[in-house]
Amino acid sequence: MSSTVATAPERAAKQDRSPAPPRRRVPAPYFLLIPAVVILLIGMGYPLVWQIVTSFQEFGLKQQFGQPADFVGLANYFELATNPDMWGVVVRSLLFMVITAFLTLAIGLLLAVLMTAVGKAVRLTLQVSLLLAWAMPVVAAMTVWIWLFDRRRGVVNYLLDMIPGVDMNRFAWLENPLTFFMVASIIVIWMSVPFVAFSVYAGLTQVSDEVLEAAQLDGATPWQRLRFIIMPMIRPVIAIVLLLQLIWDLRVFTQITMLQDAGSRASEFDLLGTYIYKLGAGSQDFGMASAVSIFVLVLTVAISWYYVRSLLKEDEQS
Question: Any stretches that span the bilayer, and where are they (predicted)?
């Protein structure tokens, strides 16, 4: 029996012929995301950083012409925290946001359910009507709505005045805070309902017909099928739609501004969007305006945190 002993050069040659470990490659999607991330950092990151820095400064009209801004630390935030007008605007904005967003969701949900129950012709007519309302430019729509509620030539006053016992002759809808925000809510809801209706309708079309038929055979009423089967299945759609509506209604600006131009620009008619605009463009106090903007950003993140946390939990479970 013979045995061979490999020399050192032979062992080295065998090791050289062994396959090299595979190199770790960076996935292509990360390279494809780089342009979008860079655009977001430039388009959103710079304004955000500028606002944060400006909120700690006394930045007014002089600074627009090159004079250095004085660093005041948290003085702008302390002044806002002790300003009763600021907290009045915050309370009005939160109430307007909650009422408008939930009414929009309720009406949009009803229209989505209606589109699944009616025939093809009626559904197509309803969808086209919603698309036309959604596609109308904001300024054009606001011009029509302001004309409808005009105190002298408004159609709404004319129709309501025809009701026996109702005196709406030259009633000024936009000169009282309560009726002002009532009109604003109607306009915002009218502009937002199509998005909610189409989003929820898309979710309803994904509900399995076999599940609904099985529930119907088991004796479930239409209300029970809607409450215990359909609604839980489209809950993610409803959650994201409601979150978007809350954020949009918190930051509403154009509708309020145009209604103020047609009615009154007093502070009782301000929401956070118009309040920031008046501080910045109106009073040239960009430091305070930036501080309020950062406050709105923090408020938006706080509103969105529940949904984001639920998404993170779902990712961990999956």
Answer: 30-53, 94-118, 130-149, 178-204, 225-248, 286-308
